[in-house]
Amino acid sequence: MDLLKMFGGLAKSWRGDPPKAPSLSLTPEDREPCSDPIALQRGTGLCTEGNTVQFLLCGHEALPRMLEAIEQAQHHIHLQALLFFDDAAGRQLAEALEKKARQGVQVRVLFEHLTTAVGDPMMHKGLSPLSVAELSKRMGEHGVFVRDSATFPLDLLDETEFDLLLGHLKRLAALERKQLPPAWKDAHLALQEQFLQKAESLLKSETFRQALTKYSQLLEQWGFPVAAWRSPIRYLRQFLLHDHRKILVVDGKLAFCGGMNVGQEYLYHHPFDPSVPAEKEAKMPEAAEPWEKWHDAGVLVQGPCVNQLQAEFLGRWLELGADPISQATEVADFYEEPFFPLPSQEGPSKIWMLTQKPGTSKSLEHRLLGEILGAKESVCLCNPYLVRDAFVGALLAKKGLDVQLLVPDDHNDSFLHQAFMRGCYDWYHEAGFDVHEYQNHFTHAKILQIDDRLTHIGSFNFNNRSALLDFECSLLIEDPVFAKEVRRRVFEEPIQQGHTRPVQQSIQKLVDIDMILGTRAIFGYLPEVL
Questions:
Q1: If you placed Cys at 435, which of 57, 300, 350, 405 could pair as Cys (CB 3.0 to 4.6 Å)?
Q2: 90 vs 80: CA distance, rounded Å
Q3: Buried-state track 346-375, b at ≥16 Cβ within 10 A, e below 16
Q4: Is 387 helix (H, G, I), strand (E, B) or coil?
Q5: Based on the number of CB atoms within 10 Å of its own CB, is 459 exposed (0-12), middle (13-18) or buried (19 or more)?
Q6: What are the residue ranges in the chain where pLDDT is below 70?
Q7: Could you read off the pLDDT of 407-438 as tens digits, one per residue?
């Protein structure tokens, strides 16, 4: 225990003070619904009224509804995910899409091929990276148009990644200065300044950028386009940037949005047993679906918001080239029914579709931070990667409110994110927050709820990657009835049924030693791609 206390003391000194809440506020314009009928039809307004929403918790609720919607499609199906695995769930969804394509329905699919090929070795041990190419080829042979969403414009490389890389270097230097013994600081500071000046000179030099441009041109001449898998520039961009959105639009009438990719851990037919560890349940002889399952969430939408999600998908589809079906080159070419039908406002839900792209304003993060800071009664947050300082600081600023946090247990797919979150538990305990770890199955859901009125569901994680580097899409839903259902099913029932563990001061336990082994310091030294 003495050793444990020693590590605890080191971790406490490394971690520093709790992060401060950001200084920002929302304007009345942020909350105003769109009233322009043209903008509503084209999906260009920020907020829509009159929507109907259905909460889908876990794959056994989401997959059947998606398959049903696909089966009923008459004109088009647009599907986007970060990952599309060639496993049991992926093949079933692919076969449903192929069937509709053979019937003459326009089917467009976007996912990141290389990211899927790399996959999750813990979840897809039997898959070959070649399965991605085989899956895409098979769908294409049946008339499904498949594109790789991991193709990013070169201007993002210029404007975003070089600046981020330079920012990483400066951030690491600052952290290093804080943690070096005083006797070393003066000598080290001179070396740091010299290194940073050279790095900035190189990264911002026109010669360096011209060299990269020339390299890209040579690849094109040699038959290796910049968008091809074999391009090192592509690998660099894809390591830093991801298109993390999850969208399904069917006939312009209904849409899905949430945190689920296409794969057996996200989408499945039989609910898992929360009392049994995922890896044990998957190996049971009676298991109908013998794989580990994740706890996740999404929402089915009908109403004017569907046109917004449609515009989001088509915008990205056309960024990757002209539409191979209609030869359209811009979203405006689709501004007619059935892609963009006149929206009917029949439901009770007001929805803001929030998006974020690398190199642009951080509107999604800004809005969620503003809602947390503006909370009057309660904040409930479920997220697997609650690590970004701005969000930790915003939560800590709500001391005195009813604050509930639900994060994964050791089933988290990222040890470093898990270690960082556990390193913040004592701050949350001191603030009086109710913090629980979801047991036995990885909770991948991305849900924020404010004052039992506003509910955020989508692809956005509360980490640096989502805030700085990824394409994200989430829905912020104002509907008290919907909010109460989500709070009951996500936060209250798992606690009542014993499927979570209250955290309190568990950082003192030897079993949780990964909380205190330099959690903040380890994470702080990594680039903000995590």
A1: 405
A2: 13
A3: ebebbbbbbbbbbbeebebbbbbbbbbbeb
A4: coil
A5: buried
A6: 1-16, 119-130, 153-189, 191-192, 195-196, 199, 202-204, 208-240, 359-361, 505-530
A7: 999 888 877 778 778 878 888 989 999 999 99
